[in-house]
Structures are given as structure tokens and as C-alpha cells.
Amino acid sequence: MNNIDYDFWGNKIDDFNNPIVFIYNTKHAKISEWPTRQPEFYEALNDLQKSGSCFISISKFENSIKENFSVKIIYGLYLIQGVINNNEGKPLRLYLSNNGIKFASPKKKANIIKYGFRLRHKGILLVTGDNYRTRFENKNFWNSSDYCLSLIKLAESHNARKGNINESDNVGEETDEAEEISESETHYLENVSQFVEAEYEVEKNAASSIPPFSYVKVKPTPHITSLKQYFSFELGESDFKRIKEIKPSFLRIELKGVKDNNEDISIEVYEITNKNNIFELIGIIDRQISLEEIPPNGNLYLSALPTLKNVRLSVLDSLKKNLSANKWISKVISNQYSYIPLKNIMDYKNDNVLIKMGLNPSQAKAVINGINTPDYSLVLGPPGTGKTTVIAQWVKFFSDYGMRVLVSSQNNKAVDNVLARLKKDKSIECVRIGNEAKISEDVKDLLIDNYAVNIQEKISNQVQISIDEITNVINYLKKISEVLPDYLKCQKEFSELNNSISNLKIKIDKIKNKLENYYVEIKNFSSKKLENNKKIIENNDKISNLKEKNIEENLFKKTFGFFNKAFLSAKKTYYQFNEKNYVKKLEKYDKAKSFNEKYLEDQNKIKFDLEKRIQDITNKLHNYNEIKYPIHLESLNLYKFPSDISGNIEEDILLIKGQIDNYLMVYEIIKGWKNELQNIRQQSMYNMLLSLVDVVGATCIGINTTKSFSNVNFDVTIVDESGQIQIQNVIVPLSRAPKAILVGDHKQLPPVIDNALKDEVVSRIGDDDKYTIDLLEKSFFEVLWNNSPESRKVMLDTQFRCPKIVADFISEAFYENKYFSHESTSKRKPFKDLYKSSLIFFDTSNVPGNIKYESSSKGEDDMLSVTGNKLETKIILYIIKMIQDANADDDEFDLGIISPYKNHVNEIKKAIKAEINKNNIKQIKELDDIVATVDSFQGQERDIIIFSFVRSNERNAIGFLKDWRRLNVAMTRVKQQLFMVGDINMLSSVKQNKYKIDPMEVKFRESMNFLKEFCKKQNMLIDVNDILNNIK
Fold this sequence. Notes:
Keywords: Coiled coil. It is built from 31 helices and 33 strands.
């Protein structure tokens, strides 16, 4: 009856080679607790019938006199609850509970998945008692208790494999009253609240110090959306350049004293464009507003939005009141959390299953650890180790188990990378929340507004299919209603005619046999007799003649001859009479034969007419039988023609009429709903969409900035690039789910901490608590990594991106030699064989200082600011020219040019454009994306990377290059060829002075010294002084 198989994750699936059949009472044919538009009962029946697998939980009722069992099934969004009743003396039956079908909320799904098992079957059928008796009780399996006992045995077998679990042990169930958190938890949450307040204060001060941007014209801009409004603000050229440089996220228009309404207009910056010297800023206003409410010209002020502050403070407030879905985070922050062992949702033995799917051992371990953790898992993902692949496997697992996942990160690109991967799997429904201007093109169709339009169209199409099906049902029932009387009449006549013909055939056959036998008998007899008679008469005549001749000779003989002659004459007369008599009999037979032959011919004609009538009726019945029962709508229990014909026309027609009336009513309801659906605003569908999707992608703050989404909880939160996110930001998505997986690398770029922010925080809470300062300055991922048990940590250790020689250096310099290269990376050759190595360092150490030094200028604060490095810019041009000359076949390749300083980035762009105009180098498309800072390149990869260190000066100063993690990011963007340009002696030397040296700077210089020796050993250093004449 049942076989054990394995699903996608190596978990066991039981096989039940039958449908699961519930018997229901029509008064319980209902659906309840649906969050939005509730499906009709018949829609549910249709969906359930098509199912092929489900999660099922079967448990014995406690404190029950009879052995009754509770049955719960999860299929999609449906929760079907039933009872196996044990009525003594009667077979076991599975009945739909009084609650009917309910919406399967994430919590209900999680519980049934936790305590149940996965079952493959042949559909879920809900039938009435009458229907069950008609369709199933004629089969032994269904008529006995075997059907229900098979399901119970499967459940017992599952419990034996998994271990007995008490379903009442519902870990994570919500309680009516929240426990109060400890003083220590409150203390640290309050400190984080101060981070938020301080950050807002610093942003506000910074915004107020920047002069406003003037606009001279405003107009609405058409955009495909139903919720937000887009406006174009025309700027002057100088303000356009300033705003382009600052790249603000939000601006505001002050209305105080301008309009009666004193509420300022908040504008989210969507796009900054220059079209034919018309400088425009496209902004989004997230509320309904008319053009007349916006001043036709005025100022745009840099804005520190209180919304962002309020979002974070609201989350912190819910944590303080212990009302968040996340119950462990405040305890972890305050170092008061009692860790429990990992669950055994997925056995670690299943890593073989995952490895067969293409994961390496460290990826498989990360997937299993993330699934089994009861609270959180940290995954250290160095560059190129396949973080997105691992995230996709988590999402696949969680969505398969009916869990909703939030994918989040500080930056939009990280979120988009994950969603772009997930959207390829058509079984996973994803939606993106955020600013369209900041979202990648390949996931814009997932934006909630666009998704709403698409799902609206999908639903509309599906509804139309339902309308068409109902129309077919109505037409089917109407046809039956029309033909039923004639069908029954034809059936009756057909039967009577067949009986008549059968009887006629028997009668005709008997007559034919009788006549044929009689004919043969008489014919044979009469012929023989007449022949004998003729012979006798002839002999007698001969004898008589002979005797007459001799009669005169003998008188005695005369006398005897007289008598003998008389006797012979009488005998002759007798035989002549017999001959006439037989002739008459033969004539009479011939007449009888003719009569019977005619009678037979008449009967055959009647038979022929009957057969023709039967053929006509057969053809008619065949046409009626062409009215096919819609098998795919079996669960609707429609009148089935012709098997359901009772013979009572009045009752049958009344039954059909009732069904037609019901479906006409359903038809009108669905048609009306479709019309309403086509006119509905997309945002009114958001709650429904979020209840349907498996994955929601949003930035850390973005998930809480829209009211429609702020109260939607998730089962799991996955945060990517978490090595860059501070606690006051990452706490927002973490608060939305009881379980979290943080993926990041604190050995790459850290969060950017403004000195003004640190000073403001210290002024509020002091600096005596080093742990609190760590929470401010470090990513929460790094804090957790340093304080969490090993059971919550996994490192992805195999990279697929960089040339092996680059990864070998990174492994030793940053990852304690635990960062390995996949074998495929060792096969990569240097680009066009320009050099023997994939890592080349252009060293300017021996170039005279007046040529190699960086350029700088003093700002208003009298601080030196690096503006560029002309020699290193020229070397970059030299490398570009060399690459283009070597690439004679114009093979496509991705180029990336990285510099730590924005000013130097601008200097490089300007120089490249000048060389292109002089035709010294070929055209380079999308230059703004190709040349960028280190921070802009995190998460990206290119075939060729050119990295300029910029810093070279007499002071031996390296500025913010001291954060050695930037070196990790810069080097690991490469896939084929890495060029590095810099003054390696200055970068690697530690200048002794009376001031205490920053430990971070020491670490950077040690890394650079290691790189210097590494390159020397591998013969990868090129002395720029030797090729200086070739560099123009």
C-alpha cells in the first residue's frame, strides 16, 4: 500500500496510491478564516482534487472513550480538518469536520509540518455520503476499514521514524500576555534607541548645513503606478551638479507660510537627469496630492526623515514590551541568552543529498545549520563562495514547507541579486518592496505594484477559466434537461423493439425449419410411391393381355381370367386414385409453401423496419452519449448522464433544474467579482498578495516604511551582506520573524561610522561601555560572530570566482588559510597571456616623489583632502591600452577600475574620456559603472580588475586605507586578471613616531608587506620606473 521515498531535501515521503476521501455534510460545505477574497467551496474542491502531495497529521483524540482520530491536511493555502470515527460494528470513515475548510496561516502550517509528514497521493476528494456509497462502497478497500487503517498506519510508521512528538508541545505559540524583559535587556535596547536618536540628530544637522536646491518649474510625470505620484522638478545647472554629487535619498518642500496646510511635502528622489541641458529631478510623493498644492517654483531642502527614525524606535519599543515575533534578540544583545541544541529538522547525513545537488560540503553544512537552528545561524561568506546559492536552497526548503521568508539587506543590490536568482524557480512566488529607482531592472516586475498588476491579470484569467467552466457546466446540464425525456423514451422503445425482433426471429426460424423438413419428407415419399405404382400398373397390363390370348384354349382359364381381370382392373383403379390423391397433396403443400414463404417475407420486412428503427435510435442515443461528463469537475457532484438516471423523469429534471439554478447564481457572483477585480486599485490587493507569496524582498528599513507591510510577520528572516549592517538597522527585519539567518563577512567592508555620530552617542551614554561602542562601530554580524557558540556559526570555505593565486593570498592574509579555491579556478589563464600570472602589481616605489605622489588640497576645515594621483591614472590608461591592443578579436570582457577615493574616480573618468576623444583608446561603455570606489564594488565581479591605491606621500599617511578589509574587497572582485597599482614600499612600511599607532593601520601595513613578499616570490612585481618612458 505504501512505499517510502525521499523528497528534494532527502526527507522521507510516504506514498499512498489512492485519493484521500473525506465525507462531508452539505451544511459543513464552507470555507472560513480567509484573509481576503474567500474562494468558493467548489473552487476548493477543484483545487484539492488536482493535488498530488500534501502534509498530513493524524493523532488520536485525548480523553476519548472511542478511538477516534484527528486528521489535518495542509495543501497550498487550504487547511482541511477531519475525523476518523470509530463507530463500533461499522467500518471506519473519514469525515470532514464541522469547521469545513480553513485558511492555512503560516503558524498552522508550521505546526502541521512539524508534527505531520509528507504524503504523495492521487488527489483529495470531498464527497457527500450518497456519492461515497455510489462511487466507493462497491470496492472492498473503501467498503471496509482498510482505507482509514492504512492512513493511521502511515502516521504510526512516521512517528516511529521521527520519534513520538506531543502535538500539544507548540514551541513558539503566541501567549496572551508577554513576559517582561530583564533590566539588562532594557538597558541595551535603550542604548540602541540612543543610536537611532543620535543618528537622526546628526543627519538633521548635516541637512540643515547644506543650502537648498532651487527649482524653477514642476510638473507631474506619468508613471505606471496607482499608489505613488511622480513629479519632475526643473533645476538650474549649478544646483543640478550639487544634487548629483550629494545623491540625496529624500528632500522636502517647506510649506509653512506658503500654503494653508503647514505639512511639508516629503519627496523621495527617484532619478536625476540631464536631457538636452534640461536638468530635472524626478521625485516620488507617497501620498495623494494635486499639482496645485505644490509651489510652482521654490526650494528643495535636504531632509532627515523622521520616518526612518520612527520605524526603528517603534521596533525597539516592541522589543522592550516583548511583543515582537523575535523572542531571542534582546537576550542575545544583552548576553543573557540560554542557547538550546539545534533541532533535527534535517539530518546532517543529508549533506550527501545536498552535495549531489551541486553544493560543496561547507555549503551543505550551512544549509542544514540554517534549517535546524531554533533561533539564528551565522554564515561567514567570503568572496565568491556561493552565498546566493545557499540562500536559494534555504528559501526552496522553507517555501516547500509552507513557511514565508523575508530576504533583506542594507542595500538594494544585495536584495535584488537574491530575488533575481529565486524568480527563476517558478514554484516560488516572490515580491519586492522598495523604491523603483533603486531596484535592478531584472527584478522590477517583482515590485509590489507591478506584481499586483500581474497577479490581478492572473487572477482575472483564472476567474475567466472558472466562468468558462461554469458556463460549460450549465450548458451540460441544460442539454441533459432537454434530451432526458426523449432519451428515456428511446431507451424504452429500443428495448421493446429488440425483444420483438428476438421473438420474431425465433418464430420465423421455427416455421422455416418445419416447412423445410416437411417438404423433404413429402417430396421423397410421394416420388417413390408414384414410381412404384406406375411399375405395378404396367406389369398388370402385360399380364392381363397375355392371359386374354390363352382364355379361349381353356374355359377354366376363361372363368379365372375374368375374375383376375376384374381384380387387376380394380387394383389399377386404386393405384390411379392414389396417384391423383398424392398429386392433390403435393398441390396443397405447394400452396402452403407459397403462403408460408410470403408470410416469412412479410415478417422479414417487419424485422428490417424494426432494425432500421433500432439503428436510428442507436445513432440518437450515441449522440446523446456524446454529452460528456466534465471529469475534471468530478468533485462538484453534478448529475452524471446517463449513469445517474433514475427512471423517474420528473425527479431527474427537478434535480437538474436545481443544479442549473445554483450554478447560474455562482456564475453571476463570479462574473461580478471579475468585473470588480478589473477595477480594483492594486494597493487594496497587497494584503492578499503578501498572504500568497513565499518570499518578500526589502531593505532593512524598507520593510517597515509602508503601512501595508509593517504588520506582516514571517517565519524566517534571511539578511544578506549583514557584515555591513549596524544593529539599529538590522534589528528591523530580525524583529519580523522568530528565526533568522545572517549571511555576511566582517572581513570585508564594515559599516560606515560617521565620527559625528560616535561623538553624539558618546555625549549621550558615555564611552565606558566598550561592548556598547562595539555595537555602534561594528556590524551586528561581527558582534554575534565574536560572541556566539560554534553551533550557530558556519563558514563557506570554497570560492569559485578568483584566480587561485589571488585566493591563496586572500586565504593567508584574511582567513587563516581556511579559504580554498575550487579546482576550476586553477585552470584559468591570465588575460590573453599578457603576463604569466593573473596577479600583477605595478609598483611606483622607485619613481621619484614629484612624479608618484598623490595630489591633495585643503578644505574649509583646513584638512587635506586627496584629489587624485596623476601617475597612477596614467598607469591605468597604459593598462587599458595594453588590454585593448591584446584583445584584437574584440572578445567581450567585463572591466572594473577601482579606487578608494571619489576624487580619484572622477580624475580617472575624465582622463579616459580625453583619451577616447583622442582615439588613443577605444570607446568604453557605461563608464560610470566601470570606474567606482571600493564600496560601490562590493558584491560585484569582473573579468579584469584594475585597483589603484592612490596614497603615496612623504608623510607615509594612508588615511582610511588603514581599514585593511578594503584590500580584501578590491582584490576579490576579479575573475581572470588583477592589476594593482601603488607605492608598495610606502604602503607596507610602518613609520615609527611618538604617537600610538592605530592597530588597524598596523594590520593593513602587515597585509601589504605580506602582499609585497608574495608578489616578489611569484615574480609579479613590475617596477614602473623601468617602463616610465612608455607611460604618457
